[in-house]
Amino acid sequence: MLEVPHTSISFTDIHLWKKDRFLSGLIGDIDAISLLSLDIFDTLLFRTCANPSDVFVLVAEKAHRVGSLKASISPAAFKEMRIRAENNARDRQAAVTGFGEVTLELIYAEMPEGVCIRDKMAQIEVETEAEVCYVNPHVASLLAACKSKQIPVALLSDMYLSSAQLRWILASAGLDLSSVDALLVSSEEHEGKSSGHLFARLKELYPQIESHAIVHIGDNIAADVEGAAKEGIRSVHYNVVPEHFESLHHWEYVRHGHVLPEWKSLRKLAEASDTTVGMGELDRVFYKMGASVIGPFLQALCEWVIDQCVDEGIQIVHPLMREAYLLAPMLENAARIRGVDLQIKPIYVSRQATFLAGLESFGDDELSLLLGIHGLKIGDLFEVLDICEESDHFEPFLEERIENCKYIIGENGSSIYDQVGGFLRSAPIQTKILASVQRHRQLFVSYLKQEFGSPERLVTVDIGFHGTIQKSLEKIVSLAGHKPQMMHLLAVGANRLDELSMRGMDIRSMLRSGSGGSDEGKRIARTPAFLEELMMGGFGSTLRYAENELGQIRPITAELKRSDEEYAMKRACQEGALAFQGYYAYLLQQKEGRLQRASLQPVEWSKPLHRVLDMPRPEEARLLGDLTHQDNFCTEYIAPICEDVTEEWFVQGPEAFLNSCNYGPSILNANWPQGLVTRQFPYYLYTFYLRLQDGFGSQVMLFEAIHRVKEDGLSAIHLYGTGAFAEQALKMAWFHGLQIRCWIDPHVGLDATPWGRFAYFTLEKVRDGGIEAEIGTRTGTGAGAEIASHAFLIATLSEMKEYKNHILHVYEGSGVTPIFYELCP
């Protein structure tokens, strides 16, 4: 199994920050830093909620319990009221003083009379912030490293909380405040970071330090990067928490809503811990998959297994190889985290290794099973039955697939397929097969006794699904004269487990995939291939058992045929999964008693994996679908998880193709239907679920318009529109990495107060090229770049024709033809 040292995550570790993708760029420069400046929220402090405003829901819930909020105000309603109160307070403050920075007290002053006890609500909000916040160990590690070198550290925050309130929250999170030399907050300085004001104040506090010797780290481009640049201060954009279109967390939200909101920032942090020597960008994709998808699912399984063992007084479990290569060390780590004394000892076993040993006879049913295996060759058949010496009778055909032998006619006029069947049914060969059965059973039971002592008392752990191997284990042990008293623990169990339970087997599953099961369990059971592949090591399934010269029984495993690149990607995924465990343990310890263990929410912890299976991103469908899957049950047939499918299957569209995937493998071998459809129609599933989530609103139309812009190679575009819908288009463009630096609003004057940090422009100024800000270009040069500087996203659902005609009228006679991207009806 995978050998991994267990390392705990601690923010006092002065080297931990070097693992962070965003901080590691400072490794060679730390000695040149004379002052470290840190943003607080989403940089030094993370929250155990999906969005900052979700804190307001928790505030309302607590306020209801203590009678500080009117009972008729629901938590969701209070959240909206709290957001509006802050906006109103900022508008009022800007009108009176010229700046929009506010305090928590000014915000609650905007709440209607009689709705709540204002001062008590403000106190509850500060307490709630402290409850949800935890120290980001990466940034705190850098802070500790700087203090060890006597480098002063300042904290800068655009926040309505006071410095005293922030210090209390930081101390509650466990940060040693003696390591903080200065704290500047916009609510007290009357202006924030975006203007450069807080950075100017920082320089006033440290006049002896040159601007270039200061490094600021923060998550917000406008405040932490552009604001610092205005004062000549170097910045690091700490882009861990901010969301974007390619983020797997965004895709999870579209498919499932908020997934594991308490753990969202922690999962993102684990993803960012991918700075490993020799790890390239492709490996980092798989590391992220391990840290944020595979790791959480397997951690839930490990916790559930430990729960079962604690309840039953079990002290040793046996995960099944090959998946035990990753599952075994994760079980060991999980037991260590829980403080549970649990031994982990894998069993080398497979369907093929138990096939002969579990037979009571070899008749037509068993023969039909073998002859029906896709890709099985004549030579493989004799090897599986362990009568290779008899294969000489069919020497010319040993490399022929059995299904092809139906059409090869032998000397006696019958097909080779029929001849093989008749040969294996003959009395002399039946005797040899039964002797082989006895030999394999004896070797297997001897292996179990040698490795585990009492073969009848095994506790196995497996991914799932039908209990085939588990049933064979018990049958073999029973045929050997023992009475099985085993327990079998599966991640996902199908309906067939009910039948096994009726036979007296103790077989349990964390998730159910059949009737009465969850969508998550059903999808994982339908498409397990890449989960299994990502958990495996550099060896294949167990083929059989053999006695060595010392009399020891050893498993014989199949040779794997993989590229070095594929092995590297799998190792990266496994490293990510193991890394997640360390961060999981860190947050559990930081928020002791406030967070539920993964095993108590198995469906929720399965949703990240379910989303990849059910609604993969195009990159995931491509990379995971290209992984090869080798089924070692009697054959070494190997193929990509997403095998090539002829175009004829796609001509009727993605929905019809998904329906076709219900056919049997002999007609359409679709291991991963959603992966195949995404490879052909990259955003079909995304827009399908986006439309459902949006209530058949405008999100899909906006997405498709912006996607056309990106497909045309534009990195920036002008926005033409007005009101809330234009703001929505602007935000979505940013979310998709598309720059919009010029907003033309046909309904407002140039002196109007715009949204965000924009200034309004006229069409005439855009037409004449009078905008200094870089608009962005097409991929390429020359005429393409000129056309791109006159491209417009028309942000309206009602005046598309009027807006377009107005732009054309302004451009008339200019010699320039504008490009339009519209939300076409």
TrEMBL record:
Keyword Nucleus among UniProt keywords: no
UniProt entry tagged with the keyword Hydrolase: yes
InterPro entries named in the record: HAD-like_sf (IPR036412), HAD_sf (IPR023214)
GO MF term set: hydrolase activity
Source domain of life: Bacteria
Matching Pfam families: Hydrolase
Record protein name field: HAD family hydrolase
